[in-house]
Amino acid sequence: MRRRYSFHLDRAGRSVTVNVRSGWITETELLVDGRECAFHRVHGHGLYPLTLAVRLPEDPPLPVSVRLERTGSAEHPLTCTVDLDGTVHPVPERVEQ
Q1: In sequence order, what are the residues at sequence separation of 6 or more whose Cβ sits closer than 8 angstroms to the Cβ of residue 33?
Q2: Which of 10, 16, 23, 92 has the most CB atoms within 10 Å of its CB?
Q3: Which CATH architecture does the domain made up of 3-90 adopt?
Q4: Tens digit of pLDDT for each residue in 44-83?
Q5: pLDDT (tens digit per residue) in 27-47
């Protein structure tokens, strides 16, 4: 059975979304302002901690990185943080409705 997790944060004029689909194959995607900037695929339940990092093509280039870690909790098994402009922010999990 596949599990889905989604994290989202609006900060510093940017929209950052991280989607994780886990199962036999775990896929993680990083979207900044609605555009896919990084993608990671691994067989199995994923390797954590996982960091996805990109440089947005601006003047000057803007580095963005997200880090996913296991919590050990069954209810919320992953946490996500984003590094924007050298400041680390927690990214809240979206609740599926």
Answers
A1: 14, 15
A2: 16
A3: Beta Barrel (2.40)
A4: 888 899 999 999 888 888 899 999 999 888 788 999 999 9
A5: 999 999 999 999 999 998 888
Residue identified by tokens 């050990």 is 72
> Where do the structural domains in the chain lie, given as residue ranges?
3-90
SS3 call for 22: strand
Sort residue 46 into left (φ over 0), alpha (ψ -120 to 50) or beta. Answer: left
Residue keyed to tokens 């036999």: 24
Among the listed residues 74, 62, 78, 84, the one whose alpha carbon sits nearest the alpha carbon of residue 10: 84
Dist CA 64 CA 43 (whole Å): 25
Per DSSP, the three-state class of 12 is coil
